[in-house]
Amino acid sequence: MAHGTMTHLMDASNAGQVTFDFPDNRLMIELCGEFDKNLAKIEQQLAVQIIRRGNQIEIFGQEDACAEAGKVIEALYHRLENGKTVEFGDVDRELRMGANPELAKLAEDQLEMFSSAAVEIKTRKKSVEPRTDAQKAYVHALMNNELAFGIGPAGTGKTYLAVAVAVTKFIAGDVDRIILSRPAVEAGEKLGYLPGDMKDKVDPYMQPLYDALNDFLPGKTLAKLIEEKRIEIAPLAFMRGRTLSNAFVVLDEAQNATAMQMKMFLTRLGEGSRMVITGDRTQVDLPRGVVSGLTEAERLLKRVSGISFNYFTAKDVVRHPLVAAIIEVYDEDSRKAMLKRLENQRDL
Q: Is the pTM above the cut of 0.90?
């Protein structure tokens, strides 16, 4: 086990020093990386100086930065002690998460979600895994496609699993930020009638996205990432004019996006980004006569290579069993209504 001691140099610069003595020289070499590239990454990111002498590493710089660099090195060494490797992405992940022990464990757990045939996402509250073949196919599509659609009724895990994969990609360092969006479409109550400023008016529409994130990230960490804008939750209208590079972008409730909004959103996709669009075609809240952007995108993009479409039915509902029964009743009623309209048209 690595042992580190910090000495506080109480001068005007608030400088600090952390020293580590490593008992296993082989592990130390792996930790440092080829030509000490892992140490150089830590130096660059945290503005510290790291000096390696034999089996000893010394860190110099501002006290807080030294402490954070020390925690990163300890976490990487502990990873090696557990028989795992340290790649450049692992260093980036530890730096990205600020060496938060709770989040570091979460990161390792989540990165194992595709290490075996059983797809499992471990959160700080519970373990989540796809419960149906459609959900499993959807998760694999999210991992392997730059643009993916999840279409189906409420309660099938479309948004929840998309956020889970987004957090996994973020922690792994595959993307620099997460952007979650929804159309702020009123369902019987006008935005202007709600109290508060614009954020107060919009937040109720975004709440399901906050709820999903809270299941995957510790509260304080989530608040910090939102404050730093490494995680953004915003209405669809706020996406106009942006190019979303190196981001994992999720558009939820896409059935309430207009055709123009959907085109605008799809063309935001930038270099190194992934985009997921989820929606339920049976719950459109757009004004009568306005074409749903989800329906149009499905029609136009179905044959475009590199875009996946995954579909869910009432059988994939993972909420209360009554939800599946309710959806089936409504679907059956819709089918009967459609057949009746067709019969009336033939009679005419």
A: no
